[in-house]
Amino acid sequence: MKRSEAPTDSSPFHLPETQPKKENTSEGPKEEEKKERIKKFKVAVIFSYVGRGYFGLMYLNNNPKTIEGEIENAMYKAKCISEDNKHDLKKVGWSRCARTDKGVSAANNLISLKMGLDGNYIERINSFLPETIRIQDVVKVSHSFNAKTRVDSRTYEYIFPSYAIQKIDSEHPEINVEYNPQQEDIDYFNSVISNYVKTHNFQNYTFNTKETKADSKSNNRYIISMSAQLVQRNGLNVIAVSIHGQSFMLWQIRRMIGFAIVLTNFRLPIEQMNEIMKTSFTLINWRSVIPTAPAHGLFLDQCHFGNHNERLQRDTSNNSKTNINSEETLKKCMEFKEKYIWNDIINFEKEEQPFAKYMKEQVNYTKIYDVLTGKVTLEYYNSIHKPSIQTLSPDEEQEEN
Fold first, then answer.
1. Are residues 253 and 389 both part of a single domain?
2. What pLDDT, in 10s, does the model give residues 281-312?
3. Beta bridge partners of 157
4. Looking at the structure, do residues 158 and 142 belong to the same domain, yes or no?
5. What residues have CB less than 8 Å from 290, skipping those under 6 apart?
6. Which of 101, 137, 185, 344 is catalytic?
7. Domain for residue 320, yes or no?
8. Which pLDDT tens digit goes with each residue over 322-334?
9. What percent of the chain has pLDDT above 70?
10. Do 340 and 291 share a structural domain?
């Protein structure tokens, strides 16, 4: 009997030779593809800046010309914020103490976030910033710290040329830019702004997209103190106004200043002026009567954290007690204010005279005077000068707070 042949290679029963196992030579992702992990700490960042040329402080999508946009980008370049967290401030728990408007500066502002602290991080961040934006200090804080809710109050300053408080004829308003104010001018202006102190409804002093009731408390703000003095800088006499309050609304300070200047220009009897000030807090639809002073004279002087610092010192479980706004930090902020903010405001005023243009072109003295003195009704004035109730563009939607 013929023996059957062994199956050929093509047979379905053929078992192929065992292939040698390939060695796993994979080394994982390439080094350049690895995302560097950054050990993060919750910190408070104290910083100063000149706001002219920027669309305010707050980060805006697709618009790098904000102060926070510059700082966030510098932190990323300094490897304090990772690639994953870039352009997403929520991921790092970003919060701000005071949101300043377009063109407004700050000597002492603060943000809180989680970021890396390797090496000389403050110098690295500042190396990627223009000299008109400076990180002054970074302080470790608790995980629950929030810049907006921990701040007690804010102090702003507003600087404008002293000729603005001269007495003006409402029928034929003319601005003499060579005018040097007398003590009676400064005293009257201080009498006007003293009416802002304590709690008032500032609905006529802000921008609202909808009307509110006269007794609405949503627009109430507490002003702790407000005063003005005559100062000379770089050959220019200016009025420096200090405003200390718990919080502020959009355009509030600029409109407070604008209205106080107009009342000082009219130089009405003190009793009549005081009654007008009371009316501005109680009547609705008065926004059209109150002018908005230019942004370039306003800056945030200091954020106050007294209660936070006191609690920190009482906490015996915290061994690394570092106050926010130490004497050394405040000194740096004040030096920045003198060198950059004051000089920017003064030089801009001397070169362009924006305040004189504002008074000549944007303030309708005759119509405002007629309403304040009862020559025409507010309804008639508003019919020919309708209050602006509209939606802000994203570039304008900032707020002093």
1. yes
2. 988 778 888 999 999 999 999 999 999 988 88
3. 242, 299
4. no
5. 204, 205, 255, 258, 259, 280
6. 101
7. no
8. 889 999 999 999 9
9. 82
10. yes
For residues 38 and 355, give the distance between their C-alpha atoms in angstroms, rounded to a whole number.
Answer: 48
Half-sphere exposure of residue 290, counting CA atoms within 13 Å on the CB side? 25
The Cα 194–Cα 196 span in angstroms is 5
Partner residues linked to 154 by β-bridges: 245, 303
- Mean pLDDT value across the chain: 86
Length of the chain: 401
What would the two tokens of residue 45 be? 């960042």
CB 276 within 8 A of CB 372: yes
Q: Rounded to an integer, what distance in angstroms lies between the CA atom of residue 346 and that of residue 232? A: 10
Do the Cβ atoms of 80 and 374 come closer than 8 Å? no
101 catalytic per annotation: yes
| Domain end call among 149, 175, 192 | 149
Nearest to 295 by CA among 369, 384, 395: 395
The answer to whether the beta carbons of residues 368 and 375 sit under 8 Å apart is no
Query: Which residues neighbour 165 within 8 Å (Cβ) at sequence distance 6 or greater?
Result: 181, 185, 186, 188, 189, 239, 261, 264, 265
**Domain total of the chain:** 2
State whether 156 and 118 are in the same domain.
no
Q: Which residue has the higher pLDDT, 37 or 2?
A: 37
**Residues near 354 by beta carbon (within 8 Å), at least 6 away in sequence:** 294, 296, 348
In a domain, 8, yes or no: no
Provide the residue range defining the domain that includes 345. Answer: 151-299+327-398
Give the end of a domain, one of 103, 121, 149.
Answer: 149
Same domain, 77 and 94: yes
**E strands, 35-104, in order:** 40-49, 95-96
Decide if 230 contacts 162 (C-beta within 8 A).
Answer: yes
pLDDT of residue 211: 54
**CB of 65 closer than 8 Å to CB of 55:** yes
Q: In this structure, what token pair is assigned to residue 43?
A: 């910190």
User: CA 32 to CA 339: how far, in whole Å?
Assistant: 43
The answer to whether the annotation marks 196 as part of a ligand binding site is no
What are the DSSP E strand ranges found in 274-325?
A: 298-304
Q: What is the pTM of this model?
A: 0.85
Q: Which two tokens stand for residue 310?
A: 């006191």
